[in-house]
Design a protein that fits this description.
511 residues, alpha/beta, nine-stranded mixed sheet, 14 helices, binds xanthosine-5'-monophosphate
């Protein structure tokens, strides 16, 4: 399979680079910049992309690559920090940009030399997204300049003989007009890609790999009923049939009626399915805990302990399967990226797990790729296009300590919010929408009396990949209906607020 290697220098848009490459139908993986050259050779990429990063290449201790990477004969595209690294490593010079000259942030009109393969087919000038305080003062021997802006003559470099390219701006962000075209040019014109990455291929390969790995062994799948674990269940069922048992742990933190709906949906399919009602157990472990990371870790550990118990009952289960997807891995702190939150199925795993191995067949896919795979596997559209629901459930939507009473309150309010959005025809336009029970109480007046009750926050976002998200512009009339109904029907809530923050700087969930 042709593949691209993305070497991660800690930049904030790194996952977007991976998305863009895959959108161009070329498989890629993101690895830390410390990946040894030997491993790169084994990985055998048709091209390497160096990402951006927060450091300056001339600082002591800044991330560097082994110079042997440049001897592999593999084309390289350096983006921002990656471009400066390329320039410095090959004999050029990078310096801090002087005020008013080459330091650039934001949308910048850029002129391209269209004889360079990267800029082939582009207009002579367009907007690119810059975010750099350093400047390639001296371009290395063998390179030529291939783009400039008003403030900076050295915006892009190319050594066509060795197939090394660098751009100071970020072609992966949507603010760079023609950015995807530039990435496509690198993949197809420079690296010679054929665009063979498709979900139909992935399905076949994944099934073969699962069969090879599992043999005649038995697998227990941690099923939450969400898109990821349901797609994982369908994939495993196709690969290993009755060797699979799906265990759904109802931790008492599901949405209204959700546990019964999941049970009904899976009971209809001919799969080994077990439901474990574990509300009391989870709530008692969470009692007194209010720190978000602690809550996540407790839930992650408790899930595993329940699965271990179920595996012992079934006997001879070697593998635990999970529907982990790529953003879960990244946000839990893989490679050079910071830990944003420990996803219950990655960073939330305890150190010791009784299973021989963990299977995560969706680990390299983004959410929309998982949905495509679900369609390939013949899952119904209603299931495949469902909004995501996090494994820790309402525990991370109840700010502070979790109690049964709070979970019941939130369940009712969340149901009303979702019900109104669906009836108002809004839900299809939203990627995720839910209610959050804050730990703020405020004074209100109801009838002739004073109230001192919880504030409920409503959250609704639109996004392609959940790595970045915009808050949704729900019409005021709809928000008004939600507010009136919740305050009238749900005891314990007397104030409703709407969350108008995007990701970043916020995240989708509040904890
Ligand atoms: P954040 O809050 O990180 O959410 O912006 C991005 C997406 O991930 C979901 N999410 C999780 N899903 N286990 C999951 O299965 C988790 O621990 C978890 N935390 C967040 C979140 O609902 C959103 O779709």
């Amino acid at each position: 399979m042709e593949r691209i290697l993305i070497l991660d220098f800690g930049g904030q848009y790194n996952q977007l680079i991976a998305r863009r490459v895959r959108e161009c139908k070329v498989y890629c993986e993101v690895h830390p910049y410390t990946m040894p050259v030997e491993d790169i050779r084994v990985f055998s990429p048709i091209g390497i992309i160096f990402t951006g990063g927060p450091s300056s290449v001339y600082e002591a201790g800044s991330p560097q690559v082994d110079p042997a990477v440049f001897e592999l004969g593999i084309p390289v595209l350096g983006i921002c920090y990656g471009c400066q690294l390329l320039a410095q490593a090959l004999g050029g010079q990078v310096t801090p940009a002087q005020e008013d000259s080459a330091r650039e942030y934001g949308k910048t009109v850029t002129w391209y030399d269209r004889s360079s393969p990267i800029f082939q087919g582009l207009p002579e000038k367009s907007v690119s997204w810059m975010s750099h305080g350093d400047y390639m003062a001296c371009v290395p021997a063998g390179f030529r300049l291939t783009a400039h802006s008003e403030a900076c003559a050295h915006v892009a470099i190319a050594d066509e003989a060795r197939r090394f390219y660098g751009v100071q701006f970020h072609p992966e962000v949507s603010h760079t007009e023609y950015g995807t075209q530039m990435i496509r040019n690198f993949l197809y014109e420079v690296c010679g890609a054929h665009g063979t990455w498709s979900m139909a291929d992935y399905k076949g390969t994944a099934i073969r790999q699962i069969r090879d790995r599992v043999g005649r062994g038995r697998v227990l799948l941690a099923l939450s009923g969400g898109v990821d674990s349901s797609v994982c269940a369908a994939l495993l069922a196709e690969a290993i049939g009755s060797q699979l048992t799906c265990v759904f742990v109802d931790h008492g933190l599901m949405r209204l009626n959700e546990g019964d709906e999941i049970e009904a949906a899976f009971a209809r399919r001919s799969m080994n399915f077990v439901r474990v009602n574990a509300e009391r157990r989870f709530l008692s472990k969470l009692s007194g805990q209010s720190d978000p990371e602690c809550k996540r870790k407790i839930i992650g550990e408790e899930f595993i302990r329940v699965f271990e118990e179920e595996a012992r009952k079934l006997g001879a289960v070697d593998y635990l399967a999970q529907g982990t997807i790529y953003p879960d891995v990244i946000e839990s702190g893989a490679g050079a990226a910071a830990v944003i939150k420990s996803h219950h199925n990655v960073g939330g795993l305890p150190d010791h797990v009784e299973f021989k191995e963990i299977l995560e067949p969706l680990k390299l896919l983004f959410k929309d790729e998982v949905r495509q795979l679900g369609r390939e596997l013949g899952l119904p559209e209603a299931l495949v296009s469902r909004q995501p629901f996090p494994g820790p459930g309402l525990a991370i939507r109840i700010i502070g300590e979790v109690t049964k009473e709070k979970a019941d309150t939130l369940r009712q309010a969340d149901f009303i919010f979702r019900d109104i959005l669906t009836k108002a025809g809004q839900s299809q336009c939203l990627s995720q929408y839910f209610a959050v029970l804050t730990n703020t109480r405020s004074v209100g007046v109801m009838g002739d009396g004073r109230t001192y009750d919880h504030t409920l926050a409503l959250r609704a976002v639109t996004t392609d990949d959940f790595m970045t998200a915009d808050w949704a512009w729900i019409p005021y009339e709809v928000l008004d209906q939600v507010s009136v109904r919740i305050v009238n029907e749900v005891k314990g809530i007397n104030r409703i607020v709407y969350d108008i923050t995007s990701k970043p700087p916020a995240t989708v969930e509040w904890e």
